[in-house]
Design brief:
By secondary structure, this protein is an alpha+beta fold. The protein has one domain: Lipocalin (Beta Barrel). The chain is built from 4 helices and 10 strands; from the N terminus they run αβαββββββββαβα. Strands 1, 2, 3, 4, 5, 6, 7, 8, 9 and 10 form a 10-stranded antiparallel sheet that branches. The termini are far apart. InterPro entries: Calycin. Keywords: Signal.
């Protein structure tokens, strides 16, 4: 009985660590030095006139049927409103979370896409790098947080303008992630039109 309990606890820990993607090393280590932001970033390119983004790949499944909209405002937009929707497939209930995405002022003059994501109901600000952006195809967001002196926690979100990638787009994204040593175990998020339409 105790062996079964230990096995269950061990598997639960593996699942937790995998979904959080905690790895050895620090965010500033050499194997993360090539995780650069896109050049010439602008919120207009990201928002695409409020066109929908579909999160399709992540290190962890944090919701199905997700949709993300960015609404730019202001003459020189340094921030945008973000509307994030997702569905609980089991219950059929849709959820919504709204926040603000702010271009970090210390990176803005250089055109580097380092963004702060703020939610009104969250105390902590999340900092993401936009490391890939093809206006009509995909956007790749990456976040790294040092957990302690030996470990880091990494977040990866790949968004598409369509509910799924073509095989060519998927190959390009995979190659892009491999070149930056980010091609770890990933989750393909559910974007099935039949399930997500209702």
């Amino acid at each position: 009985m105790s062996n079964q309990l230990l096995t269950i606890i061990f598997l639960a820990l593996i699942s937790f660590c995998h979904s959080q993607y905690i790895s050895r090393g620090q965010c500033s280590d050499r194997d993360r030095m090539n995780v650069n932001t896109v050049d010439n970033f602008s919120f207009e390119r990201l928002s695409g006139n409020e066109a929908v983004w579909y999160p399709v790949i992540s290190y962890a499944n944090n919701g199905d049927c997700q949709r993300v909209y960015f609404t730019v405002w202001g003459a020189l937009p340094l921030s945008t409103e973000m509307d994030h929707l997702w569905k609980n497939v089991s219950s059929g209930v849709w959820h919504r979370r709204q926040g603000r995405v702010i271009w970090d002022e210390s990176y803005y003059p250089y055109g580097l896409a380092v963004l702060r994501v703020e939610y009104p109901d969250a105390a902590d600000v999340m900092v993401y790098r936009v490391i890939g952006l093809e206006d009509d195809e995909f956007a790749i967001f990456y976040r790294c947080v040092n957990v302690n002196r030996r470990n880091r926690q990494e977040f990866l979100h790949v968004l598409s303008r369509n509910p799924s990638f073509t095989s060519e787009q998927q190959a390009r994204v995979n190659q892009f992630l491999r070149a930056r040593n980010l091609n770890r175990a990933k989750v393909n998020l559910l974007q099935d039109p039949e399930i997500c339409s209702s």
